[in-house]
Design a protein that fits this description.
Shape: globular
Oligomer: single chain
Structural class: alpha/beta
Distance between the termini: 27 Å
Helix content: 25-40%
């Protein structure tokens, strides 16, 4: 898988949030994006997923321009900003509902993912009763469960305990070994450096490679 970002700019009215980003992402690598809240990184991730259409430029997945064709990229899953699930359903029921859309995985696959992310014991609790960290883990489980080629995580360590943060890092490394294309964004440098193959810094909608 190759994702090509070509001269992407995004403005909301007169406010330019993303400025002329040009870069390439490839399978088998972890890409880290560092930036303060409001730096533009979450908007950029939404453009990668086709949730926002860039004002100018294009995003191309293996030769398919998702911006031109108004597509959500196939075989891509993302956790961007806060996890958002149906509050009156349990964690398991929420994942089961999402899995029913494409019917790619079984209930056993969902259970296996919940165990992998240390969420099995909470599977029958309603989402509205979840803590911030537990909600975050359910969002990560949603990204993992259908084994997509592209995984996008926005602040994946937010609100989780140290033990789970270490487990998430381990899982992300395991997915890289499978040849996945993984993009992680965080405002905390320690969540990115040491985990990513390439690190980029966002500032005021511009991106620059970090060579340190």
């Amino acid at each position: 898988m190759k994702i090509e970002v070509k001269n992407v700019t995004k403005s909301f009215g007169k406010n330019e949030v993303i400025h002329n980003i040009d870069m390439v992402f490839e399978s088998g690598k972890i890409y880290g994006l560092i930036g303060r809240n409001g730096s533009g990184k979450s908007v950029f991730l939404k453009i990668l997923c086709g949730f926002y259409k860039p004002t100018t430029g294009s995003v191309i997945y293996d030769g398919v321009d998702i911006t031109k064709n108004n597509l959500f990229p196939i075989n891509t899953r993302a956790l961007i900003e806060r996890p958002n699930f149906l509050p009156d359903l349990t964690g398991f029921e929420n994942l089961e509902l999402l899995a029913s859309i494409q019917k790619k995985i079984s209930k056993e696959d969902i259970i296996s993912t919940l165990k992998r992310i240390n969420l099995y014991e909470e599977k029958d609790k309603k989402f509205s009763k979840y803590s911030l960290g537990t909600k975050q883990k359910l969002g990560i489980a949603q990204v993992l469960m259908e084994d997509p080629e592209v995984m996008i995580f926005d602040e994946p360590m937010n609100g989780v305990e140290n033990e789970t943060a270490l487990e998430i890092r381990k899982i992300i490394k395991e997915e890289k070994k499978k040849g996945k294309l993984i993009i992680i964004a965080s405002h905390i440098k320690e969540d990115i450096v040491g985990l990513s193959d390439e690190v980029y810094e966002f500032d005021a909608g511009k991106i620059e490679k970090n060579n340190n």
